Amino acid sequence: MGNDESSRVTQKQGAAMGSGESIWVFVGESKGVGGVFKTVEKASEWIAHHALSGLLTEYPVDSGAYDWAVARGMFRPTKDDHRSSQFIGSFVSAKMRHHHFEHGRLLA
Residue 41's domain spans which residues? Predict the structure, then answer.
């Protein structure tokens, strides 16, 4: 990955996890988890090395994405199904820090 891309991927896109520990999860085009990383830099290097396409998202450790978003006021359950196990278990927020990649390159 070029120097310009490296600096772009470390810039804030979405809400940071805060003081808690976080990990970066890469989900490829097949929608399966392809990798889990401690740093966005390591993840980006791996994605570039394998020329992968998909989404790299920062997740809190020891907390679900749903609970994290609700606790920070980034999501407010307004319907009964927003409290269902199916909804909570598959919850993803666009407000979490994330980066889109195509063929190993960070998309602007």
Answer: 3-61+94-106
